[in-house]
From TrEMBL:
SUPFAM superfamilies: HIT-like. GO terms for biological process: deadenylation-dependent decapping of nuclear-transcribed mRNA. Coiled coil: none annotated. Pfam families: DcpS_C (PF11969). One of its GO terms (molecular function) is RNA 7-methylguanosine cap binding. Gene3D superfamilies: HIT-like. It comes from Vittaforma corneae (strain ATCC 50505) (Microsporidian parasite). GO terms for cellular component: nucleus; P-body. This is M7GpppX diphosphatase. InterPro entries: DcpS/DCS2 (IPR008594), HIT-like_sf (IPR036265).
Amino acid sequence: MFSNKDVKEKVYFENDHYLVIADYKWDQMSVDQMYLLMIFKDCTLRSIRNLNGSHVGLLKNARENIYVLCDQLGVHREHLCLYFHYRPSYFRLHIHIVNIRKSIARLGSFSRHVLLDDVIRDLEMDPRYFEYNCYYVTQCDC
């Protein structure tokens, strides 16, 4: 477990389960360029592979807290892209929170993106979905 004492960045939101900080890609000036990360505090959650049906409530709560925070920042939920990377660049479960209103190109290659809504849906259909689901990871410079 960690808290905002463990990070040097501005913490936009925190509770017992996660905290939200700005990604280095965002200058924190223009909400049109907003790019946040929600980092989960449970160190056993390293990637979506560690998620199961017992985490659905946590993920839904995270999504609602993201919506509230982004509303406060002036970003409407229909302009948000909420996703995980698989494989992640670092192994602490985190959600990318990106304002795509101005440019979807800021998301880069979609080959690693797994949408939060898809993760919730998959776990609701099968609580053990990420134990056996195959992901094909490509390296793309496109």
